[in-house]
């Protein structure tokens, strides 16, 4: 966790190489999946790769957080415990966890962070997790600035910091509160294997069976972008700013990390009472631009209160940016004119357009020809016959620029730690002392007989040039002081060797000064949980998790939905997003109608996709929506077979009823 005055930029990494580039592009911390038990099942990494990433990050005092944030079966707990120790020994700085059963195990002295999957919406829940020994917590993305500030007010900044998602894909449900994937496919989002039912198109029917929307992606959100809200979020108490994207590619992580690094550097320059959470400054060979990466258009979601236009209802794909319009369609190509004559196209560019049914159609450019004055001829990869509804006047978007892709395939950032170099004479030669911007210092000496330079000014200039050659290191010179008693002639070979030795010693001093993040000590006696009973929504899937909550005063504990004890209709998703509101059907939206409030009811709606049917129910007091359904029989049967095969034991009675679980 960052200190109270520090601002941490936290970037995602699908693999160690991407994580290294995240650090190089300015991340103060990186989160990455280990070889198992991460909430992105297909983004795992070997422990040795995490060790390689940690070694690189620690050179800049950047941190590595590893996700161990699925809910666990009893038979998985020991493997998870062993993995936690392996990650600790590999140099990981913190584990991001969801399952409270882990806190009942013999874990290494590594810092624990509460995953967004722990569903933190209230100050009471946040305070409880702090008191239970979590050092960093991720409140729900749906909270507004006032709600975040309320959480800040109950936390001790010396014990627990607030982390918040500022960019990337948005899950429509409160994290940890979606079971549609498990109910329909047996693939659990809480176990890292979401089928993403929220991105599907649905028919929306009202209580009388009338169509409200046709083939609309009404559960698909736009992408999160808090670029304009960083200062208010800092004031609300956020200290770790998290970019979503452990499935994203290298170009995305480079670009988005660089984008926010620049924004935060501006804030830190304005506010000297704040500091970055790691060492060094980063420069870039490109101008970061979030619009260049995959996005479903952007929203700042609920940070500034409920907004009308937060959904990507037309498509969950990347529509890109409009660049021009079609001027001619031929048998094997089409011509277009760009809105900006300076814009250039390249072979392989991703182009697309909306057809007459409002479906996004891709038209990747196999080859392009410049016709001059902003006009281009595009020979698409697919046959022209497949590009239905492409006609003169159609607006063309670009959702991938090959020039941009190639830019980010090259070295695109340089991160350096400032260092002061001081050269002085000794009784038998010279000493070079290097001091970095964090106060680490190291020296190197060389025996050398004094010799006067032939030309004092020329000799000094050449010596400074030799000492300043730090290009192959992580350092950049801030100042070079020649603190000798008399001018020296120093051969370039001597100066270079002295510089290399001093810098190598400084790297060693930095490594020796490295300190692990401290593990928080839980409050004793254990702080009572804010509620005395838990439903399946608490995601308790093993006996150790049950023991944890019982030890914290919970009297009734239901099993997680994945245990399949809930066979009837239940809430399969709880979300702050309201379909009625987004479709302008909310009773509270009616204006100019006397007495409408309280007379127009928020009646259920139904979502239909093929054979899948879900019911939307609206809880207007907290302004939330429940997506209601039941598990498929085939899923229940498969779950029973898996439980039998794995000898999975889970309690069927409440604690204290007489069964030992």
UniProtKB/TrEMBL annotation:
PANTHER family for the chain: 23S RRNA 5-HYDROXYCYTIDINE C2501 SYNTHASE (PTHR30217:SF10), PEPTIDASE U32 FAMILY (PTHR30217)
Example GO BP: proteolysis
Record domain Peptidase U32 collagenase: where: 396-510
PROSITE patterns given in the database record: PEPTIDASE_U32 (PS01276)
Keyword RNA-binding: no
Species assigned in the record: Ottowia oryzae
Domain of life, per lineage: Bacteria
Upper classification of the organism: Bacteria, Pseudomonadati, Pseudomonadota, Betaproteobacteria, Burkholderiales
Name this protein carries in UniProt: Collagenase-like protease
GO molecular function, one term: peptidase activity
Keywords for the protein's UniProt record, in alphabetical order: Hydrolase, Protease
A Pfam entry, by short name: Peptidase_U32
């Amino acid at each position: 966790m960052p200190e109270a005055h520090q601002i941490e930029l936290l970037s995602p990494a699908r693999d160690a190489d991407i994580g290294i580039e995240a650090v190089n592009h300015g991340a103060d911390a990186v989160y990455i999946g280990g070889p198992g038990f991460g909430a992105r099942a297909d983004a795992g990494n070997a422990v040795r790769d995490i060790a390689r990433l940690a070694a690189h990050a620690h050179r800049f005092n950047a941190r590595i957080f590893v996700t161990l944030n699925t809910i666990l079966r009893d038979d998985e707990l020991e493997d998870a415990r062993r993995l936690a120790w392996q990650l600790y020994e590999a140099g990981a700085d913190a584990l991001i966890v969801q399952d409270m059963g882990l806190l009942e195990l013999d874990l290494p002295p590594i810092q624990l962070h509460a995953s967004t999957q722990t569903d933190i919406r209230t100050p009471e829940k946040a305070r409880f997790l702090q008191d239970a020994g979590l050092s960093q917590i991720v409140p729900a993305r749906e909270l507004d600035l006032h709600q975040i500030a309320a959480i800040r007010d109950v936390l001790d900044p010396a014990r627990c910091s607030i982390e918040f998602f500022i960019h990337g894909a948005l899950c429509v449900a409160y994290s940890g509160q979606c079971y549609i994937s498990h109910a329909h496919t047996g693939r659990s989002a809480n176990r890292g294997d979401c089928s993403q039912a929220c991105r599907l198109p649905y028919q929306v029917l009202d209580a009388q069976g009338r169509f409200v929307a046709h083939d609309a992606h009404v559960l698909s959100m736009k992408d999160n972008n808090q670029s304009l809200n960083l200062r208010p979020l800092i004031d609300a108490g956020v200290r770790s700013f998290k970019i979503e994207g452990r499935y994203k590619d290298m170009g995305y992580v480079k670009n988005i990390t660089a984008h926010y690094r620049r924004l935060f550097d501006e804030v830190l320059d304005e506010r000297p009472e704040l500091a970055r959470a790691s060492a060094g400054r980063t420069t870039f060979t490109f101008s970061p631009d979030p619009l260049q990466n995959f996005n479903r258009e952007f929203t700042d979601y609920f940070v500034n209160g409920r907004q009308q236009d937060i959904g990507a209802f037309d498509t969950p794909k990347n529509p890109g940016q409009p660049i021009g319009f079609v001027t001619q369609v031929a048998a094997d190509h089409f011509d277009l004119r760009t809105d900006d004559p300076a814009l250039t196209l390249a072979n392989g560019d991703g182009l697309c357009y909306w057809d007459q049914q409002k479906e996004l159609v891709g038209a990747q450019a196999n080859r392009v020809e410049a016709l001059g004055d902003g006009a281009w001829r595009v020979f698409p990869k697919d046959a022209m016959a497949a590009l239905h509804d492409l006609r003169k006047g159609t607006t063309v978007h670009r959702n991938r620029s090959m020039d941009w892709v190639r830019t980010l395939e090259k070295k695109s950032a340089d991160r350096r730690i400032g260092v002061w170099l001081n050269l002085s004479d000794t009784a038998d030669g010279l000493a070079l002392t290097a001091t970095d911007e964090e106060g680490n210092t190291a020296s190197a000496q060389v025996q050398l007989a004094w010799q006067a330079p032939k030309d004092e000014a020329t000799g000094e200039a050449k010596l400074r040039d030799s000492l300043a050659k730090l290009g192959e290191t992580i350092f950049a010179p801030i100042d070079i002081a020649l603190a000798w008693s008399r001018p020296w002639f120093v051969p370039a070979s001597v100066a270079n060797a002295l510089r290399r030795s001093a810098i190598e010693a400084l790297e060693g001093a930095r490594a020796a000064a490295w300190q692990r993040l401290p593990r928080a000590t839980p409050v004793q006696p254990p702080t009572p949980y804010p509620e005395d009973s838990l439903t399946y929504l608490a995601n308790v899937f093993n006996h150790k998790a049950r023991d944890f909550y019982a030890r914290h005063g919970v009297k009734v504990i239901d099993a997680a939905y994945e245990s399949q004890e809930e066979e009837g209709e239940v809430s399969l998703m709880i979300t702050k997003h309201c379909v009625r509101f987004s479709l302008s059907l909310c009773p509270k939206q009616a204006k100019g109608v006397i007495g409408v409030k309280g007379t127009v009811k928020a009646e259920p709606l139904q979502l239909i996709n093929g054979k899948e049917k879900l019911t939307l129910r609206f809880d207007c007091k907290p302004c939330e929506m429940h997506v209601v359904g039941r598990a498929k029989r085939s899923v229940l049967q498969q779950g029973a077979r898996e439980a039998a095969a794995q000898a999975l034991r889970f309690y069927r009675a409440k604690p204290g009823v007489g069964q030992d679980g």
